[in-house]
């Protein structure tokens, strides 16, 4: 028996991580724009947004179920979320490379990697009690 999580996504602890990732994406775009120019700025922002949108999709899929009775559904939703996240990121990269001209690929990947690293440090952001 699958038990759906009734908690809205904006009330889950993962939202703090997504907010930090959004801040990192915007600040990367601003920093690249100030240091390297407007093309690098929007390229860095687009890279950050690719990672943020993919992680948002994963969070939406991964936190749908909870409880011991939903163990199988939890594993399946984690797997589906991760696969969807990878496919979405690849599709967004393809869209950006085809549709955005001029583009600075180095800034694009720096923005992407910085937002991913903010997500990887999520355990540091959560501290001991994820409810606060």
UniProtKB/TrEMBL annotation:
GO cellular component, one term: plasma membrane
Keywords: Cell membrane, Membrane, Transmembrane, Transmembrane helix
Localization annotation: Cell membrane
InterPro entries: ATP_synth_I
Pfam families listed in its UniProt record: ATP-synt_I
Protein origin, superkingdom: Bacteria
Membrane-spanning intervals of the chain: 12-36, 42-63, 83-100, 106-126
Membrane topology, record value: Multi-pass membrane protein
Major place of residence: membrane
UniProt protein name: F0F1 ATP synthase subunit I
């Amino acid at each position: 028996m699958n038990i759906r999580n009734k908690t809205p996504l904006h009330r889950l602890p993962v939202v703090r991580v997504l907010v930090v990732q959004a801040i990192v994406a915007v600040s990367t775009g601003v920093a690249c724009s100030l240091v390297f120019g407007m093309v690098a700025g929007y390229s860095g922002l687009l890279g950050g947004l690719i990672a943020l949108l993919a992680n948002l999709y994963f969070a939406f899929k991964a936190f749908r179920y909870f409880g011991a009775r939903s163990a199988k559904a939890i594993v399946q939703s984690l797997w589906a979320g991760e696969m969807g996240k990878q496919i979405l990121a690849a599709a967004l990269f393809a869209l950006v490379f085809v549709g955005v001209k001029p583009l600075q690929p180095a800034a694009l990947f720096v923005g992407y990697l910085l937002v991913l690293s903010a997500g990887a440090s999520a355990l540091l952001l959560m501290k001991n009690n994820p409810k606060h």
